Amino acid sequence: MDEPNPYQSPVSLDEPPQSDVFYTQRLAALRYVELWRTCSNWRSFLGGSLSKALRLPGTIHTAFRPFAPLRVLDERELTASGREKVVPLLESCRQLGLQLAFYCAGERRDSFESFASQCLNQSGTIAAALLWARVCARRTVIERLHCVLQSWLNDDVVLSTSNQRQMLDAPAVFQRMHLPGASIADLLRIHSERLQNVPLGHVRVLDRDRLLERMNADKRLIAEFHVRRGFWVPARAPVV
């Protein structure tokens, strides 16, 4: 399962991507270790591995716009179940010195619900994202809620510390640390310790607008990475 990953240096697409195009996911393009990390059980892993080995064109029933800018949301636009899970955690963030900057979401065309609440610390050097998602697959409903702390360095490196387990690969500029189950307070402590190893003045200072700008830039970078390696492919038009 320890196969080499040739996709650690994302490149620009040959043609400018269209922000209104929907994409879906093609499991066969993943490395076997990624399949193992992303699958919830042996059955799904074996099915994905078989599709990969036989080079089948199977895709996941999902559709999203990876190149479209994030939509900034009002709290009233959040789903009731998502708001119930995320809003209480914002109080914990405030007690840790992280203030809400905005809510946001990507554009999707399926039964997948998700949004993120983005916070910033007082100095503007650490952003905290509370990410909530709800997936309805047949009769199964799966909800996920995790936190990711990020800092952007002057050499374009993105330092991240998350309490989500590692799943998909990412472009090499993302230096990620995964601490499944860690509290927001623990994430903030560990992320701050990581920043102590960064030279003074090397961390970018962001405000609300610059944070949204960086997130949209990273969103595009990740999209180019996954499209280039064939994991995200154009989705078929919905059947009317």
How does this model look, in words?
With 240 residues, this protein is an alpha+beta fold. The protein is built from five helices and nine strands. The protein has a seven-stranded mixed sheet, with helices on both faces. The radius of gyration is 18 Å and the shape is globular. The relative contact order is 0.18. Mean pLDDT is 84; it is low at 4-13.
Write a compact overview of the structure shown.
It contains 5 helices and 9 strands; from the N terminus they run βααβαββββββααβ.
Helix-strand layout with pairing:
Elements: E1 23-25, H1 32-38, H2 42-53, E2 71-73, H3 80-95, E3 98-105, E4 113-121, E5 127-137, E6 140-152, E7 158-162, E8 174-178, H4 184-195, H5 208-228, E9 232-234
Parallel strand pairs: 7-8
Antiparallel strand pairs: 1-9, 2-3, 3-4, 4-5, 5-6, 6-7
Helix pairs in contact: 1-2
